[in-house]
Amino acid sequence: MQRLFNCCFELEFYLKIAISCTIVQKVFYFLFNNIKLNFITQVVLYWLIGSISFYVIGIFIEKFIKSNDVLRDKLTIRVKKVKKQEFPTFTIKGIITGEIKAFISTLIILYLAPEVHRGNSLLLNLGWFLMRIVAADFCFYVVHRLFHTKPFLKIHLKHHEFQDTSSFVAGHKSLLEYIVVTITDVLPIFIFGYDITQLCAWTLIGNIYNLEGHSSLSIFFIPSDFHDLHHTGFNRNYGIQGFWDRVFKTINPITKKPGIMFPMSLIESKINSHFDDSRSTVSVNK
Question: Which residues form the Fatty acid hydroxylase domain (predicted)?
Answer without folding.
Answer: 130-250
